[in-house]
Each structure stands twice: as structure tokens, then as C-alpha cells.
Design goal:
With 320 residues, the protein is α/β, with parallel strands linked by helices. The protein has two domains: 228 residues, P-loop containing nucleotide triphosphate hydrolases (Rossmann fold, 3-Layer(aba) Sandwich); 66 residues, 2-Layer Sandwich (Alpha-Beta Plaits), CATH 3.30.70.1560. It is built from ten helices and 14 strands. Helix 3 packs across helix 4. The radius of gyration is 24 Å and the shape is elongated. The structure holds adenosine-5'-diphosphate. The site of adenosine-5'-diphosphate (ADP) has 12 residues, from strand 2 and helix 1.
Length: 320
């Protein structure tokens, strides 16, 4: 059974540093090697769905592997469910379930056996095991006794989630859960994640799909080049986008893009339609429209596009 919670955040990460390939230990900052995490600090609040985003090579897997006990950190500290990952390693490990990116099963075990073996690994007595219940939860009861190698990719991913939940951890971490997965299966996995979260499991996920983060996560941290560059509630993060786009239809063919200082970018997308990107802190859609009218065009239709997570992501990660 999961240990009782002992403190507020589900995960606390404090000044985490990872240098790969450095000579021996730790704190020599000229130690060479690849500095994958440059002193990252943040908390994962209990009870939510937390997204960890960042471009390829940003350090996401490194961070998760440190929490999983698969990679040794160079410096800093981390607590999982109040347990220090060094000093209280066993309890820390028991408090987290990790769903890895890669699918690795012995092809000759059945889903039931995969879960039973994992329970054995955690020393869970037979009477306390939840294999059937977990198979049910991930909709694999009918595949209970099939060889793992005969499962579809989606079934294998669901089995991985069940495997990560065998010891009833209060925190579930999913590393790129829907990479290379089709739309239908992605929806199914989202549902499963939401269901587990609804049962009180704190979820952390890394993803490349910004739409996934936007829809699922209530809070998002972004790392880039081993540094934390954002950590905010999703809605607030999306609200950070400075640029907005107004799409304007005019009464005659455009001679070419109209240039004005107030425009960040102007693009003729159809003979009579112009998309103007502007900085919402510096100007308004109304001003943009009157500038276009000044060029002699009458405006027939206007739509504005709100920024989404992708805009913010591009804005933040392009800065370095
Ligand atoms: P992400 O998961 O965000 O794509 P990673 O944590 O995998 O990023 O990688 C962060 C950086 O550390 C990258 O530059 C990567 O090349 C490097 N790296 C990752 N694993 C190792 C390793 N085992 N040895 C050396 N460098 C590594």
C-alpha cells in the first residue's frame, strides 16, 4: 500500500543538476560532459495533472529518470510524496509509478502475469494484489491470458499504465504517453488518465503534443536547454502570449501586404484576405483595422485568433 502523505506538494524538485559523462562526482562545474539539467526547481501540486513540456533534448526524460531512480543526479534534491529520493529511496520509489516511453514486456507473459510479476517485485502479498481490478481499469480483462506479444500497440500502452499502478502509488508519471499513437487511441489514453486523476492520483506527463497538454493539464512547466522557463496554471500560461492575429477580408484584391510599424507580420493569405499579427500589449485590433482602411480598403469581415499553447511555447523556447 502507498505510504501516507507527509507533506504538501506531491513532488518537490530543488535545484536539480545533471551532468552526463562527468568525471566522478558532482559539484565540479568544469567537469565536462553534457549539462542536461542546470539547476531546475519546481513543485508538482498534489491532485492535478501536471505537464512537463520542452523541445527534444530539453532534459525532460533526464528529470523523470532521476525521479524514477534510473539516473543519478549530479546535484540538488528531490522529494516524492515527502520522501527524499536519496535518504528515503524506498518510500520515494513506492510513492511513484512510472510509465516509460518504450514498450518493454517479455512477449511470453500474459497481461495477468505481467501485473503479478510486478506485484511480486514490490513484495505485495497475493491477497493484496489488484491485478484483476487493474486489468479491468485499463479495459484488458478480456486479454488477461493472451501473450503480451499478441497485444496491439494501444493495449500494450494500457498494460504499461496498469503495471505502473500495481503498488497503488499516489503519483503516476507518464513519459510521452501518446507518442506515435493514432487519434482514437490518444483519446482513450486521455480518458484513462482523467479517470485515474479523478480517483485522486496525481499525474505528471511529458508530451510533445501541445494540444494534449492544453486539454489535459491544469498546470504546465516548460524546460528548455536544461532550464525551467515557465511554470504556471495552463490558462495563465496561454494568456502570456503577446501576439494575436486578426484576419481581415477587404472589398478588393490586395496589391500586396500592407506594411505598418504596428504590425508584427502581415500576410496576404487570399487575394482579398490579409492576416495581421500584432502585439496585443502595443496595439489593438481596432487600430489594426483603421490602419488597413487608411490604405483605401473597405473591411468586409474580421476574425481574430486567440493565441494557444503553441504560440506561447514557440515564443518562450525561441528566446534562447
Ligand atoms: P528530452 O527528454 O527533453 O528530449 P533528455 O533528458 O533525453 O531530453 O536529454 C537532455 C540532454 O542530455 C540532451 O542533450 C541529451 O543528448 C543528453 N543526454 C541524455 N541522456 C544522455 C546520456 N545517457 N549520456 C549523455 N548525454 C545524454
Amino acid at each position: 500500500m502507498a505510504p501516507e502523505p507527509t507533506s504538501e506538494p506531491a513532488i518537490r524538485i530543488d535545484n536539480l543538476v545533471k551532468r552526463y559523462g562527468a568525471k566522478d562526482s558532482a559539484k565540479d562545474s568544469d567537469g565536462g560532459g553534457k549539462l542536461a539539467l542546470k539547476g531546475v526547481s519546481f513543485d508538482v501540486p498534489e491532485g492535478g495533472i501536471f505537464g512537463l513540456l520542452g523541445p527534444n533534448g530539453a532534459g525532460k526524460s533526464t528529470l523523470i529518470n532521476i525521479l524514477a531512480g534510473l539516473v543519478d543526479k549530479t546535484d540538488g534534491s528531490a522529494e516524492i510524496w515527502g520522501f527524499d529520493i536519496d535518504r528515503q529511496r524506498r518510500n520515494a520509489k513506492r510513492s511513484i509509478g512510472i510509465v516509460p516511453q518504450e514498450i518493454v514486456f517479455d512477449p511470453f507473459f500474459t497481461p495477468f502475469e505481467v501485473l503479478e510479476n510486478q506485484a511480486g517485485f514490490y513484495g505485495i502479498p497475493k491477497a493484496e494484489r489488484r491485478s484483476e481490478e487493474l486489468l479491468e481499469a485499463v479495459r484488458l480483462s478480456d486479454k488477461r491470458d493472451a501473450y503480451a506479444r499478441t497485444l496491439s500497440g494501444g493495449m500494450k500502452r494500457r498494460l504499461l499504465i496498469a503495471k505502473a499502478m500495481v503498488h497503488s502509488p499516489p503519483i503516476l508519471v507518464l513519459d510521452e504517453p501518446t507518442a506515435g499513437v493514432d487519434v482514437e487511441l490518444r483519446r482513450q489514453l486521455w480518458e484513462l488518465v482523467l479517470e485515474l486523476n479523478g480517483q485522486g492520483v496525481t499525474v505528471v506527463l511529458t508530451t510533445h503534443y501541445l494540444e494534449e497538454a492544453e486539454q489535459l493539464c491544469d498546470r504546465i512547466a516548460i524546460i528548455n536547454h536544461g532550464e525551467l522557463i515557465a511554470n504556471k496554471p495552463t490558462r495563465e500560461l496561454i494568456g502570456m502570449a503577446r501576439e494575436k492575429i486578426v484576419s481581415v477580408s477587404v472589398d478588393m484584391d490586395l496589391a500586396g501586404p500592407i506594411m505598418e510599424e504596428a504590425f508584427v507580420k502581415a500576410e496576404v493569405v487570399e487575394p482579398r484576405r490579409l492576416d495581421v499579427t500584432y502585439d496585443r500589449d502595443a496595439t489593438t485590433a481596432g487600430q489594426i483595422l483603421s490602419l488597413i482602411q487608411h490604405h483605401g480598403y473597405a473591411i468586409e469581415d474580421v476574425t481574430t485568433r486567440e493565441a494557444d499553447l503553441e504560440d506561447v511555447f514557440v515564443q518562450l523556447t525561441a528566446a534562447v
